[in-house]
Amino acid sequence: MPDFRTLDDLGDVAGKRVLVREDLNAPMAGGEVTDDTRLRAAVPTIAELADKGAIVLVLAHIGRPKVPAPEYSTALVTRAFQEVLGRPVRYIDWEGAAAAVAMLQPGDVALLENTRFFGGEERNDPAVVQRFAALGDLYVNDAFSAAHRAHASTEGLAHALPAYAGRSMEKELKALEKALGNPERPVAAVVGGAKVSTKLDVLRHLVARVDHLIIGGGMANTFLAARGVAVGKSLCEHDLTGTAEEIFEAAERASCTVHLPYDVVVATEFAANPPSLRTCNVHEVAADEMILDIGPAAVEALADALKTCRTLVWNGPLGAFETPPFDAATVALARTAAALTQEGSLVSVAGGGDTVAALNQAGVADDFTFVSTAGGAFLEWMEGKELPGVAALMR
Q1: What are all long-range contacts of 333-337, with beta carbons under 8 Å and residues at least 24 apart?
Q2: Domain ranges of the chain
Q3: pLDDT digit string, tens, across residues 28-73
Q4: Is the CB of residue 350 less than 8 Å from the CB of residue 314?
Q5: What is the average per-residue pLDDT within 272-284?
Q6: Is 238 helix (H, G, I), strand (E, B) or coil?
Q7: Residue 327's CB: how many other CB atoms inside 10 A?
């Protein structure tokens, strides 16, 4: 297990100013938060520190502002954050921040303005790091989803103040270690999504680490084409069939079984419940048809494979799950994985925006061992890359 300090190593924090990096970049409409998942993830760390008498100063970003603008202000999430936290949260602008922080009492929680309102935040500018560090005594990083970025508030601060992982970060790192760091074997990985090109590094990294690689989504069509299957009008990166062939060869060298569908759900148009919908063998796809999901026989075979596994890591849907009935395979396999997890035979870790949406659609997100809301950071972790925000927390 990577060796990093957690809140358990903090000691007495009463009266100390603790800068806590959270990811509060929640979806919003009309200035209101529409999904508070990320806000809720921050509660355990903030509440624990405030209960211990710390002065909690929350650092977060909203969106990607080129210049400071009201629509990117953390003031917009303060009320929603206060509601999920169940205690007052004070908003502090950067103008006069030091004086405002000096007024806070032990147990108070304040949300500072958007860290990205400083041009140097994303460049990890030492001057910005110092400006943040001057406000606190200790630093806690609780934002795994921003840990793949070496920014002033995610990486630089860990070198300027004593640094610790928050509860959400700790939970995430422990789950990821269980899934790929030191997993119980056999290990299966489900990798879906539209394009092979966006997941090449993931696939190359995984074939050497898992026993079963299940490829779904539009990506599977490129692998089928590499095997000489005519995929009709399906989404397919024909220029990458050579790369797919290399991944097959690497999997063979590593004794990793690559699973591709042998029956598929096709239609001549991409629409909800189209009249041309049919299920067929992969070798029977007509020239005017497109593959939009994997078929029931393939799902059954994948479920049987999962029953032999002890660990599962999942990123990406198996079909065009946003459009019914092309969510059927993803929902069915997710329910199998959830049932195996609930009976204790499988450790299941999933992550990425589409994946979380698909598991919610299947009604099983709460039944997986761990579901990460991180997108880019989860993907880079699956690629085997070092995450700067995590590396900076190592002892």
Answers
A1: 333/190, 333/299, 333/302, 333/303, 333/306, 334/358, 334/359, 334/362, 334/364, 335/362, 335/364, 336/302, 336/303, 336/306, 336/307, 337/306, 337/312, 337/364, 337/368
A2: 7-169, 183-382
A3: 998 899 989 899 999 999 999 999 999 999 999 999 999 999 999 9
A4: yes
A5: 97
A6: helix
A7: 20
Please write the tens of the pLDDT for every residue from 316-337: 999 999 999 999 999 999 999 9
Q: Which two tokens stand for residue 93?
A: 């602008």
Cα distance between residue 7 and residue 45, in whole Å: 8
Residues recognised as catalytic: 38, 195, 353, 376
Decide whether 7-169 matches 183-382 in CATH topology. yes
Grouping H, G, I as helix, E, B as strand and the rest as coil, residue 292 is strand
Q: What is the SS3 assignment for 58?
A: strand
CATH topology (fold) of 183-382: Rossmann fold (3.40.50)
CATH number of 7-169, picked from 3.90.220.20, 3.40.50.1260, 3.20.20.70, 3.50.50.60: 3.40.50.1260
C-alpha closest to that of 216 among 233, 197, 195: 195
